[in-house]
From TrEMBL:
InterPro entries: AAA+_ATPase, AAA_lid_3, ATPase_AAA_core, ATPase_AAA_CS, P-loop_NTPase, Peptidase_M41, Peptidase_M41-like
PROSITE patterns reported for this sequence: AAA
Region named Disordered: 446-471
Gene Ontology annotations of biological process type: protein import into chloroplast stroma; proteolysis
Protein name, UniProt field: ATP-dependent zinc metalloprotease FTSH, chloroplastic
Protein backbone atom coordinates (compact mmCIF):
# COMPACT_ATOMS: atom_id res chain seq x y z
CA UNK A 1 0.00 0.00 0.00
CA UNK A 2 1.30 3.44 -0.90
CA UNK A 3 1.78 5.95 1.89
CA UNK A 4 0.21 9.38 1.71
CA UNK A 5 3.60 10.96 0.95
CA UNK A 6 4.07 8.61 -2.00
CA UNK A 7 0.67 9.56 -3.41
CA UNK A 8 1.54 13.24 -3.01
CA UNK A 9 4.79 12.69 -4.90
CA UNK A 10 2.98 10.95 -7.77
CA UNK A 11 0.48 13.80 -8.15
CA UNK A 12 3.26 16.40 -7.87
CA UNK A 13 5.36 14.64 -10.51
CA UNK A 14 2.35 14.48 -12.84
CA UNK A 15 1.78 18.22 -12.60
CA UNK A 16 5.49 19.00 -13.03
CA UNK A 17 5.85 16.73 -16.08
CA UNK A 18 2.75 18.13 -17.76
CA UNK A 19 3.19 21.73 -16.71
CA UNK A 20 4.96 22.66 -19.94
CA UNK A 21 2.25 21.09 -22.10
CA UNK A 22 -0.50 22.72 -20.10
CA UNK A 23 1.11 26.13 -20.45
CA UNK A 24 1.36 25.70 -24.23
CA UNK A 25 -2.43 25.54 -24.37
CA UNK A 26 -2.73 29.01 -22.88
CA UNK A 27 -4.65 27.41 -20.01
CA UNK A 28 -1.74 26.38 -17.82
CA UNK A 29 -1.97 26.01 -14.08
CA UNK A 30 0.78 28.49 -13.27
CA UNK A 31 0.88 30.82 -16.28
CA UNK A 32 -1.32 33.69 -17.31
CA UNK A 33 -3.81 33.00 -20.09
CA UNK A 34 -2.96 34.77 -23.34
CA UNK A 35 -5.29 35.95 -26.11
CA UNK A 36 -5.46 33.00 -28.44
CA UNK A 37 -5.98 34.51 -31.88
CA UNK A 38 -6.09 37.60 -34.01
CA UNK A 39 -9.02 37.21 -36.36
CA UNK A 40 -9.06 38.64 -39.89
CA UNK A 41 -12.63 37.50 -40.51
CA UNK A 42 -15.12 40.26 -41.29
CA UNK A 43 -18.89 40.26 -41.22
CA UNK A 44 -18.88 40.64 -45.00
CA UNK A 45 -17.22 37.21 -45.16
CA UNK A 46 -20.18 35.57 -43.39
CA UNK A 47 -22.94 34.55 -45.81
CA UNK A 48 -26.39 33.04 -45.48
CA UNK A 49 -27.22 34.07 -41.89
CA UNK A 50 -28.24 37.70 -42.28
CA UNK A 51 -30.54 37.85 -39.23
CA UNK A 52 -27.95 36.43 -36.84
CA UNK A 53 -25.28 38.62 -38.38
CA UNK A 54 -27.36 41.76 -37.85
CA UNK A 55 -27.86 40.94 -34.16
CA UNK A 56 -24.18 40.23 -33.60
CA UNK A 57 -23.09 43.45 -35.29
CA UNK A 58 -24.60 45.23 -32.29
CA UNK A 59 -22.04 43.47 -30.09
CA UNK A 60 -19.25 45.09 -32.10
CA UNK A 61 -20.79 48.52 -31.46
CA UNK A 62 -20.98 47.72 -27.74
CA UNK A 63 -17.29 46.89 -27.64
CA UNK A 64 -16.26 49.94 -29.66
CA UNK A 65 -18.25 52.49 -27.70
CA UNK A 66 -19.72 51.13 -24.45
CA UNK A 67 -20.56 54.57 -23.05
CA UNK A 68 -22.88 55.25 -25.96
CA UNK A 69 -25.16 52.45 -24.79
CA UNK A 70 -24.84 52.96 -21.03
CA UNK A 71 -25.37 56.73 -20.85
CA UNK A 72 -29.14 56.28 -20.36
CA UNK A 73 -28.77 53.64 -17.68
CA UNK A 74 -28.83 50.54 -19.89
CA UNK A 75 -26.50 47.62 -19.35
CA UNK A 76 -24.42 45.81 -21.90
CA UNK A 77 -25.14 42.10 -22.43
CA UNK A 78 -22.92 39.75 -20.46
CA UNK A 79 -23.30 36.72 -22.64
CA UNK A 80 -24.52 35.68 -26.07
CA UNK A 81 -25.51 32.07 -26.78
CA UNK A 82 -25.32 30.98 -30.43
CA UNK A 83 -27.64 28.07 -31.13
CA UNK A 84 -27.90 26.11 -34.34
CA UNK A 85 -27.10 22.92 -36.24
CA UNK A 86 -23.48 21.96 -36.90
CA UNK A 87 -21.71 23.82 -39.70
CA UNK A 88 -23.95 26.88 -39.87
CA UNK A 89 -21.16 29.36 -39.08
CA UNK A 90 -21.36 29.96 -35.33
CA UNK A 91 -17.59 29.96 -34.86
CA UNK A 92 -17.12 32.10 -37.96
CA UNK A 93 -19.54 34.68 -36.56
CA UNK A 94 -17.56 34.79 -33.32
CA UNK A 95 -14.37 35.33 -35.34
CA UNK A 96 -16.07 38.19 -37.19
CA UNK A 97 -16.88 39.86 -33.87
CA UNK A 98 -13.27 39.40 -32.81
CA UNK A 99 -12.07 41.10 -35.96
CA UNK A 100 -11.75 44.41 -34.08
CA UNK A 101 -8.88 45.70 -32.00
CA UNK A 102 -9.75 43.80 -28.82
CA UNK A 103 -8.55 40.59 -27.26
CA UNK A 104 -10.23 37.33 -28.07
CA UNK A 105 -10.05 34.02 -26.23
CA UNK A 106 -11.26 31.02 -28.25
CA UNK A 107 -11.64 27.73 -26.43
CA UNK A 108 -13.57 24.49 -26.64
CA UNK A 109 -15.61 23.36 -23.68
CA UNK A 110 -13.61 20.14 -23.47
CA UNK A 111 -10.36 22.09 -22.87
CA UNK A 112 -11.44 22.91 -19.32
CA UNK A 113 -11.70 19.32 -18.16
CA UNK A 114 -8.92 17.26 -16.66
CA UNK A 115 -8.65 14.02 -14.74
CA UNK A 116 -7.87 15.86 -11.50
CA UNK A 117 -10.62 17.55 -9.49
CA UNK A 118 -10.45 21.34 -9.52
CA UNK A 119 -8.31 21.84 -12.62
CA UNK A 120 -11.31 22.81 -14.79
CA UNK A 121 -12.52 25.32 -12.19
CA UNK A 122 -9.05 26.89 -11.96
CA UNK A 123 -8.86 27.20 -15.73
CA UNK A 124 -12.19 29.03 -15.73
CA UNK A 125 -10.88 31.45 -13.10
CA UNK A 126 -7.66 32.04 -15.06
CA UNK A 127 -9.60 32.67 -18.26
CA UNK A 128 -11.87 35.33 -16.80
CA UNK A 129 -9.01 36.97 -14.91
CA UNK A 130 -7.11 37.34 -18.17
CA UNK A 131 -10.23 38.66 -19.86
CA UNK A 132 -10.64 41.42 -17.31
CA UNK A 133 -7.05 42.54 -17.93
CA UNK A 134 -7.63 42.68 -21.69
CA UNK A 135 -10.98 44.51 -21.57
CA UNK A 136 -12.68 45.15 -23.92
CA UNK A 137 -12.52 41.53 -25.04
CA UNK A 138 -14.48 38.50 -26.15
CA UNK A 139 -14.41 35.10 -24.52
CA UNK A 140 -15.70 32.48 -26.94
CA UNK A 141 -16.47 28.99 -25.60
CA UNK A 142 -17.31 26.53 -28.35
CA UNK A 143 -19.36 23.40 -27.54
CA UNK A 144 -20.26 24.82 -24.14
CA UNK A 145 -22.50 21.82 -23.49
CA UNK A 146 -19.29 19.91 -22.68
CA UNK A 147 -19.12 21.77 -19.34
CA UNK A 148 -22.53 23.47 -19.12
CA UNK A 149 -24.85 20.48 -19.22
CA UNK A 150 -27.70 20.18 -16.72
CA UNK A 151 -26.40 19.17 -13.33
CA UNK A 152 -27.29 15.77 -12.00
CA UNK A 153 -26.69 14.37 -8.50
CA UNK A 154 -24.90 11.44 -10.13
CA UNK A 155 -22.38 13.65 -11.96
CA UNK A 156 -18.73 13.49 -11.02
CA UNK A 157 -17.62 16.18 -8.57
CA UNK A 158 -15.11 17.79 -10.96
CA UNK A 159 -17.84 18.35 -13.55
CA UNK A 160 -19.98 20.19 -11.01
CA UNK A 161 -17.04 22.29 -9.86
CA UNK A 162 -16.24 23.48 -13.38
CA UNK A 163 -19.83 24.51 -14.11
CA UNK A 164 -20.26 26.11 -10.69
CA UNK A 165 -17.11 28.16 -11.23
CA UNK A 166 -18.37 29.26 -14.65
CA UNK A 167 -21.64 30.39 -13.09
CA UNK A 168 -19.76 32.33 -10.42
CA UNK A 169 -17.50 34.03 -12.98
CA UNK A 170 -20.44 35.06 -15.16
CA UNK A 171 -21.85 36.81 -12.08
CA UNK A 172 -18.47 38.10 -11.00
CA UNK A 173 -17.93 40.93 -13.47
CA UNK A 174 -20.06 43.97 -14.09
CA UNK A 175 -22.05 44.30 -17.28
CA UNK A 176 -20.24 47.51 -18.13
CA UNK A 177 -16.67 46.13 -17.96
CA UNK A 178 -16.50 45.46 -21.69
CA UNK A 179 -16.27 41.66 -21.46
CA UNK A 180 -18.75 39.66 -23.49
CA UNK A 181 -18.91 35.87 -23.29
CA UNK A 182 -20.03 34.18 -26.48
CA UNK A 183 -20.83 30.49 -26.40
CA UNK A 184 -21.98 28.07 -29.09
CA UNK A 185 -23.88 24.81 -28.85
CA UNK A 186 -25.81 22.38 -31.02
CA UNK A 187 -27.86 21.17 -28.03
CA UNK A 188 -29.36 24.13 -26.15
CA UNK A 189 -31.89 21.88 -24.45
CA UNK A 190 -29.07 20.07 -22.62
CA UNK A 191 -27.68 23.22 -20.93
CA UNK A 192 -28.21 23.95 -17.26
CA UNK A 193 -31.03 26.43 -16.71
CA UNK A 194 -28.93 28.46 -14.32
CA UNK A 195 -26.36 28.97 -17.07
CA UNK A 196 -28.70 30.26 -19.78
CA UNK A 197 -30.82 32.57 -17.65
CA UNK A 198 -30.84 36.36 -18.29
CA UNK A 199 -27.98 38.00 -16.45
CA UNK A 200 -25.58 35.34 -17.64
CA UNK A 201 -26.50 34.75 -21.26
CA UNK A 202 -28.78 37.67 -22.03
CA UNK A 203 -29.02 37.01 -25.76
CA UNK A 204 -29.95 33.74 -27.44
CA UNK A 205 -29.33 33.95 -31.19
CA UNK A 206 -30.40 31.17 -33.53
CA UNK A 207 -28.02 30.48 -36.42
CA UNK A 208 -30.11 28.33 -38.81
CA UNK A 209 -29.25 26.54 -42.01
CA UNK A 210 -29.38 29.00 -44.94
CA UNK A 211 -32.36 29.38 -47.24
CA UNK A 212 -32.07 29.11 -51.03
CA UNK A 213 -30.78 32.67 -51.43
CA UNK A 214 -28.35 32.15 -48.57
CA UNK A 215 -27.11 28.94 -50.16
CA UNK A 216 -26.54 30.81 -53.43
CA UNK A 217 -24.46 33.42 -51.61
CA UNK A 218 -22.41 30.76 -49.81
CA UNK A 219 -21.83 28.83 -53.03
CA UNK A 220 -20.72 31.99 -54.83
CA UNK A 221 -18.32 32.75 -51.99
CA UNK A 222 -16.71 29.30 -52.18
CA UNK A 223 -16.80 29.14 -55.99
CA UNK A 224 -14.90 32.42 -56.17
CA UNK A 225 -11.87 30.51 -54.90
CA UNK A 226 -11.90 27.92 -57.73
CA UNK A 227 -11.90 28.08 -61.51
CA UNK A 228 -15.49 27.68 -62.68
CA UNK A 229 -17.10 27.06 -66.05
CA UNK A 230 -19.75 29.30 -67.62
CA UNK A 231 -22.55 26.72 -67.34
CA UNK A 232 -22.81 26.86 -63.54
CA UNK A 233 -26.19 27.96 -62.14
CA UNK A 234 -25.95 28.52 -58.37
CA UNK A 235 -29.73 28.66 -57.91
CA UNK A 236 -30.20 25.14 -59.30
CA UNK A 237 -27.58 23.78 -56.91
CA UNK A 238 -29.07 25.80 -54.04
CA UNK A 239 -32.59 24.53 -54.72
CA UNK A 240 -31.29 20.97 -54.94
CA UNK A 241 -29.55 21.07 -51.55
CA UNK A 242 -32.32 21.81 -49.02
CA UNK A 243 -31.08 21.65 -45.45
CA UNK A 244 -27.41 21.98 -46.38
CA UNK A 245 -25.31 24.02 -43.96
CA UNK A 246 -22.47 26.31 -44.96
CA UNK A 247 -19.98 23.55 -44.14
CA UNK A 248 -21.90 21.10 -46.33
CA UNK A 249 -21.80 23.53 -49.25
CA UNK A 250 -18.07 24.12 -48.77
CA UNK A 251 -17.58 20.35 -48.87
CA UNK A 252 -19.70 20.12 -52.02
CA UNK A 253 -17.54 22.69 -53.84
CA UNK A 254 -14.37 20.94 -52.70
CA UNK A 255 -15.56 17.53 -53.94
CA UNK A 256 -16.54 19.09 -57.28
CA UNK A 257 -13.11 20.74 -57.62
CA UNK A 258 -11.34 17.45 -56.85
CA UNK A 259 -13.53 15.62 -59.37
CA UNK A 260 -12.76 18.17 -62.08
CA UNK A 261 -9.04 17.93 -61.32
CA UNK A 262 -9.13 14.12 -61.50
CA UNK A 263 -10.86 14.33 -64.89
CA UNK A 264 -8.26 16.76 -66.19
CA UNK A 265 -10.81 19.55 -66.72
CA UNK A 266 -9.77 23.18 -67.01
CA UNK A 267 -12.59 24.41 -64.76
CA UNK A 268 -15.29 23.15 -62.41
CA UNK A 269 -18.49 22.59 -64.37
CA UNK A 270 -22.15 22.08 -63.49
CA UNK A 271 -21.71 18.35 -64.03
CA UNK A 272 -18.99 18.29 -61.37
CA UNK A 273 -21.25 20.06 -58.88
CA UNK A 274 -24.09 17.66 -59.68
CA UNK A 275 -21.72 14.75 -59.11
CA UNK A 276 -20.66 16.19 -55.75
CA UNK A 277 -24.27 16.73 -54.71
CA UNK A 278 -25.18 13.15 -55.64
CA UNK A 279 -22.17 11.86 -53.73
CA UNK A 280 -23.10 13.75 -50.55
CA UNK A 281 -26.85 13.34 -50.33
CA UNK A 282 -27.96 11.12 -53.21
CA UNK A 283 -30.30 13.99 -53.99
CA UNK A 284 -30.97 14.93 -57.60
CA UNK A 285 -33.64 16.42 -59.81
CA UNK A 286 -33.52 13.33 -61.97
CA UNK A 287 -34.32 9.62 -62.10
CA UNK A 288 -31.60 7.01 -61.93
CA UNK A 289 -31.12 3.26 -61.57
CA UNK A 290 -27.45 3.66 -60.69
CA UNK A 291 -26.97 2.44 -57.09
CA UNK A 292 -26.62 5.36 -54.67
CA UNK A 293 -25.39 4.38 -51.22
CA UNK A 294 -27.82 1.74 -49.93
CA UNK A 295 -30.32 2.43 -52.72
CA UNK A 296 -30.58 0.55 -56.03
CA UNK A 297 -31.90 3.70 -57.68
CA UNK A 298 -33.93 6.75 -56.87
CA UNK A 299 -35.98 9.72 -58.03
CA UNK A 300 -35.85 13.19 -56.51
CA UNK A 301 -37.09 16.64 -57.37
CA UNK A 302 -36.07 20.23 -56.80
CA UNK A 303 -38.34 22.25 -54.51
CA UNK A 304 -39.84 25.23 -56.30
CA UNK A 305 -39.10 27.49 -53.32
CA UNK A 306 -38.27 27.44 -49.61
CA UNK A 307 -40.95 25.59 -47.67
CA UNK A 308 -41.53 26.04 -43.96
CA UNK A 309 -44.84 24.15 -43.86
CA UNK A 310 -46.37 21.38 -45.92
CA UNK A 311 -50.03 20.90 -46.78
CA UNK A 312 -52.04 17.72 -46.29
CA UNK A 313 -52.44 17.46 -50.06
CA UNK A 314 -48.66 17.49 -50.55
CA UNK A 315 -48.16 14.79 -47.92
CA UNK A 316 -50.78 12.57 -49.54
CA UNK A 317 -49.07 13.06 -52.89
CA UNK A 318 -45.77 12.05 -51.31
CA UNK A 319 -47.40 8.86 -50.01
CA UNK A 320 -48.56 8.09 -53.57
CA UNK A 321 -44.98 8.56 -54.83
CA UNK A 322 -43.60 6.26 -52.13
CA UNK A 323 -46.01 3.51 -53.11
CA UNK A 324 -45.13 3.78 -56.80
CA UNK A 325 -42.15 1.40 -56.70
CA UNK A 326 -44.00 -1.47 -55.03
CA UNK A 327 -47.04 -1.06 -57.27
CA UNK A 328 -44.86 -0.92 -60.42
CA UNK A 329 -43.24 -4.25 -59.59
CA UNK A 330 -46.67 -5.80 -59.02
CA UNK A 331 -48.03 -4.53 -62.34
CA UNK A 332 -45.00 -5.42 -64.48
CA UNK A 333 -43.66 -8.60 -62.85
CA UNK A 334 -46.65 -9.90 -60.87
CA UNK A 335 -47.22 -10.24 -57.13
CA UNK A 336 -44.92 -13.27 -56.80
CA UNK A 337 -41.97 -11.34 -58.32
CA UNK A 338 -42.14 -8.29 -56.05
CA UNK A 339 -38.69 -7.60 -54.58
CA UNK A 340 -37.43 -5.96 -51.39
CA UNK A 341 -36.17 -2.96 -53.33
CA UNK A 342 -39.09 -0.75 -52.26
CA UNK A 343 -38.55 -1.34 -48.53
CA UNK A 344 -37.08 2.11 -47.96
CA UNK A 345 -40.07 3.74 -49.65
CA UNK A 346 -42.45 1.76 -47.44
CA UNK A 347 -40.55 2.90 -44.34
CA UNK A 348 -40.73 6.54 -45.46
CA UNK A 349 -44.42 6.22 -46.23
CA UNK A 350 -45.17 4.63 -42.85
CA UNK A 351 -43.20 7.30 -40.99
CA UNK A 352 -44.96 10.11 -42.86
CA UNK A 353 -48.42 8.59 -42.41
CA UNK A 354 -47.81 8.08 -38.69
CA UNK A 355 -46.65 11.69 -38.35
CA UNK A 356 -49.81 12.87 -40.10
CA UNK A 357 -51.89 10.97 -37.56
CA UNK A 358 -49.93 11.57 -34.34
CA UNK A 359 -48.29 14.98 -34.86
CA UNK A 360 -50.22 17.01 -37.42
CA UNK A 361 -53.82 16.20 -36.48
CA UNK A 362 -54.71 15.08 -40.03
CA UNK A 363 -56.81 12.07 -39.03
CA UNK A 364 -60.50 12.58 -38.39
CA UNK A 365 -60.70 9.38 -36.35
CA UNK A 366 -57.84 10.24 -33.99
CA UNK A 367 -58.71 13.93 -33.96
CA UNK A 368 -56.81 17.18 -33.42
CA UNK A 369 -54.45 15.82 -30.82
CA UNK A 370 -50.73 15.10 -30.67
CA UNK A 371 -49.44 11.76 -29.38
CA UNK A 372 -45.91 10.71 -28.50
CA UNK A 373 -45.74 7.40 -30.32
CA UNK A 374 -42.15 6.63 -29.27
CA UNK A 375 -42.57 6.48 -25.49
CA UNK A 376 -43.43 2.76 -25.32
CA UNK A 377 -47.11 3.49 -24.88
CA UNK A 378 -46.79 5.48 -21.66
CA UNK A 379 -48.84 8.45 -22.88
CA UNK A 380 -51.67 6.63 -24.64
CA UNK A 381 -54.02 3.75 -24.08
CA UNK A 382 -53.95 0.47 -25.98
CA UNK A 383 -57.16 1.46 -27.76
CA UNK A 384 -55.64 4.76 -28.93
CA UNK A 385 -52.51 3.02 -30.22
CA UNK A 386 -54.67 0.51 -32.10
CA UNK A 387 -56.72 3.36 -33.62
CA UNK A 388 -53.52 5.08 -34.75
CA UNK A 389 -52.29 1.90 -36.44
CA UNK A 390 -55.61 1.51 -38.24
CA UNK A 391 -55.50 5.10 -39.48
CA UNK A 392 -51.90 4.70 -40.69
CA UNK A 393 -52.89 1.55 -42.55
CA UNK A 394 -55.86 3.39 -44.06
CA UNK A 395 -53.59 6.19 -45.36
CA UNK A 396 -51.17 3.67 -46.89
CA UNK A 397 -53.86 1.54 -48.53
CA UNK A 398 -55.44 4.64 -50.04
CA UNK A 399 -52.07 5.72 -51.46
CA UNK A 400 -51.46 2.20 -52.77
CA UNK A 401 -54.73 2.33 -54.71
CA UNK A 402 -53.96 5.85 -55.98
CA UNK A 403 -50.53 4.74 -57.19
CA UNK A 404 -52.07 1.75 -59.00
CA UNK A 405 -54.61 4.03 -60.68
CA UNK A 406 -51.90 6.51 -61.75
CA UNK A 407 -49.63 3.83 -63.22
CA UNK A 408 -52.50 2.10 -65.00
CA UNK A 409 -53.72 5.38 -66.48
CA UNK A 410 -50.20 6.43 -67.51
CA UNK A 411 -49.01 3.01 -68.62
CA UNK A 412 -47.36 4.30 -71.83
CA UNK A 413 -45.35 6.93 -69.96
CA UNK A 414 -44.32 4.40 -67.32
CA UNK A 415 -43.02 1.86 -69.84
CA UNK A 416 -41.25 4.55 -71.85
CA UNK A 417 -39.44 5.82 -68.78
CA UNK A 418 -38.49 2.31 -67.66
CA UNK A 419 -37.10 1.50 -71.11
CA UNK A 420 -35.13 4.75 -71.28
CA UNK A 421 -33.69 4.19 -67.79
CA UNK A 422 -32.56 0.67 -68.73
CA UNK A 423 -30.72 2.17 -71.69
CA UNK A 424 -29.34 5.41 -70.23
CA UNK A 425 -29.34 4.60 -66.47
CA UNK A 426 -29.88 8.26 -65.50
CA UNK A 427 -32.31 10.87 -66.84
CA UNK A 428 -32.36 14.51 -65.80
CA UNK A 429 -35.58 16.39 -65.15
CA UNK A 430 -35.46 18.09 -68.55
CA UNK A 431 -34.83 14.76 -70.32
CA UNK A 432 -37.84 13.22 -68.56
CA UNK A 433 -40.03 16.12 -69.70
CA UNK A 434 -38.86 15.73 -73.30
CA UNK A 435 -39.45 11.98 -73.23
CA UNK A 436 -42.96 12.32 -71.82
CA UNK A 437 -43.77 15.01 -74.38
CA UNK A 438 -42.69 12.62 -77.16
CA UNK A 439 -44.83 9.81 -75.77
CA UNK A 440 -47.90 12.01 -75.40
CA UNK A 441 -47.48 13.44 -78.90
CA UNK A 442 -47.60 10.02 -80.54
CA UNK A 443 -50.82 8.86 -82.16
CA UNK A 444 -53.01 6.75 -79.84
CA UNK A 445 -51.99 3.13 -80.27
CA UNK A 446 -53.54 -0.11 -79.23
CA UNK A 447 -52.45 -0.91 -75.69
CA UNK A 448 -49.67 -3.51 -75.73
CA UNK A 449 -47.70 -5.30 -73.07
CA UNK A 450 -44.30 -4.57 -74.60
CA UNK A 451 -42.24 -1.50 -73.83
CA UNK A 452 -43.00 1.70 -75.74
CA UNK A 453 -39.67 3.10 -76.98
CA UNK A 454 -39.06 6.87 -77.40
CA UNK A 455 -38.59 8.10 -80.97
CA UNK A 456 -34.95 8.99 -80.28
CA UNK A 457 -33.99 5.39 -79.34
CA UNK A 458 -33.82 2.18 -81.30
CA UNK A 459 -36.27 -0.71 -80.85
CA UNK A 460 -35.59 -2.56 -77.60
CA UNK A 461 -36.73 -5.82 -76.15
CA UNK A 462 -39.66 -6.12 -73.72
CA UNK A 463 -38.93 -5.61 -70.03
CA UNK A 464 -37.13 -8.73 -68.75
CA UNK A 465 -38.04 -10.82 -65.75
CA UNK A 466 -37.57 -9.23 -62.37
CA UNK A 467 -33.89 -8.34 -61.88
CA UNK A 468 -32.33 -5.65 -59.67
CA UNK A 469 -31.82 -3.21 -62.57
CA UNK A 470 -35.23 -3.95 -64.09
CA UNK A 471 -36.95 -3.56 -60.74
CA UNK A 472 -35.05 -0.35 -60.07
CA UNK A 473 -36.00 1.07 -63.46
CA UNK A 474 -39.65 0.18 -62.92
CA UNK A 475 -39.66 1.72 -59.47
CA UNK A 476 -37.80 4.88 -60.54
CA UNK A 477 -40.05 5.31 -63.55
CA UNK A 478 -43.12 4.80 -61.37
CA UNK A 479 -41.99 7.45 -58.90
CA UNK A 480 -41.26 9.88 -61.73
CA UNK A 481 -44.67 9.28 -63.27
CA UNK A 482 -46.36 9.78 -59.88
CA UNK A 483 -44.52 13.07 -59.38
CA UNK A 484 -45.49 14.31 -62.84
CA UNK A 485 -49.10 13.25 -62.26
CA UNK A 486 -49.20 15.14 -58.96
CA UNK A 487 -47.72 18.28 -60.51
CA UNK A 488 -50.29 18.25 -63.30
CA UNK A 489 -52.88 18.63 -60.54
CA UNK A 490 -51.00 21.54 -59.03
CA UNK A 491 -49.46 19.51 -56.20
CA UNK A 492 -45.74 19.45 -55.43
CA UNK A 493 -45.04 16.31 -53.36
CA UNK A 494 -42.95 17.05 -50.31
CA UNK A 495 -39.57 15.37 -49.89
CA UNK A 496 -37.17 13.87 -52.34
Amino acid sequence: MLRNSSIDNIVSNYYNSNDKDNNCLGLGLNEEVQASMESNTKFSDVKGVDEAKAELEEIVHYLRDPKRFTRLGGKLPKGVLLVGPPGTGKTMLAKAIAGGSWGAFFLSGSEFEEMFVGVGAQRVRDLFAAGKKRSPCIIFIDEIDAIGGSRNPKDQQYMKMTLNQLLVELDGFKQNEGIIVIAATNFPESLDKALVRPGRFDRHIVVPNPDVEGQRQILESHMSKVLKADDIDMMIIGRGTPGFSGADLANLVNIAALKAAMDGAKAVSMADLEYAKDKIMMGMHKATIVPRGMSLGMVAQLPDKDETSVSRKQMLARLDVCMGGHVAEEIIFGENEVTSGASSNLQQATTLARAMVTKYGMSKQVGLVAHNYDDNGKSMSTETRLLIEEEVKEFLERSYNNAKTILTTHSKEHHALASALLEHETLSGSQIKVLLAQVNSQQPQKQQQEVVVPQSTSQSNPVPASTPSAAASAAAAAAAVAIVAAKTQGIAPVGS
